[in-house]
Amino acid sequence: MAGTAVATASPTAVAVPDNRSSVERYLAEFAPNTFAGRLIKFDGKQGEFLTLDDGEPVPESAEFVALCDEVLVGWIRFRGEGQPPDRVAGLLYDGFEMPKRESLGDLDKNDWPAGLDNKPADPWIYQILLPLQHATTRELFTFGAQNPTGRTAVNNLLHSYERVRKTHADEVPVVRLRRGGYNHKDERVGWVHTPVFVIIGRTKRDLAAAPDTSSAGDMNDQIPF
């Protein structure tokens, strides 16, 4: 995923310094792509991680190198079928600072489109994109989080990564994708499935290195599920 990526067609988007290289500016303008490889989503109804292109479940035994230092955060606004979305986003570990929602405009709820519940829904969505690399095949994936449970899962992983990188700056987590959940306070809703990234070890940021998933390589900071 390339450098600091800020792409938006909206005149209401905040301005941020453009310190990208000429290559990064070219890719952002002429070949925009905010995620690496295949997209992975979490199906809250079934409680499964799925690859978006074929709808197939991700095996629970699969191990992924979590490229936390390439996580992209920001806001996205969809503009309808066939139109590219507006984005105000960038790489968290490249110095991007996420702007406040109020700075993006579109604050009048009377102008908001209807959501799934037929109530006005904020057109700007807080999104996190986490790149993952299969530990065996080296295939690239991106987990996209646009709802609270998905963002919480990624942010929990980032908290763990942030603590560990203070002493192991050249290492990133190795994770398995698991299902967690909780009982909703509204009894009519019942059990809510949530995504969880379970840390099973770590590996050098150099992706040619084999992941260390032994007990000695454990981050000792697993996220329960």
Output mean pLDDT: 80
Helix content: 10-25%
Task: Describe the largest sheet.
Answer: 9 strands, mixed
The amount of beta strand, in percent, is 25-35%
Give me the count of strands.
9
Helix and strand content put the structural class at mainly beta
General shape: globular
| Tally of alpha and pi helices | 2
Give the termini separation.
29 Å
Following the backbone from N to C, one meets helices and strands in this order, namely HEEEEEEEHEE
Question: Can you tell me about this structure?
Answer:
The protein is mainly beta. It has one domain. Helices cover 12% and strands 31% of the residues. The protein is built from 2 helices and 9 strands. The protein has helices at residues 22-30, 148-164; strands spanning 38-43, 48-51, 64-66, 72-77, 86-91, 124-134, 140-145, 171-183, 191-204. Strands 1, 2, 3, 4, 5, 6, 7, 8 and 9 form a 9-stranded mixed β-sheet that branches. A hairpin with an 8-residue loop joins strand 4 (72-77) and strand 5 (86-91).
Describe the secondary-structure layout:
Layout: H1 22-30, E1 38-43, E2 48-51, E3 64-66, E4 72-77, E5 86-91, E6 124-134, E7 140-145, H2 148-164, E8 171-183, E9 191-204
Parallel strand pairs: 1-7
Antiparallel strand pairs: 1-2, 3-6, 3-8, 4-5, 4-6, 6-7, 8-9
For the structure shown, list the relevant keywords:
single chain, 225 residues, mainly beta, 2 helices, globular, disordered C terminus
Summarize this entry quickly:
This protein is mostly beta strands. The protein contains two helices and nine strands; from the N terminus they run αβββββββαββ.
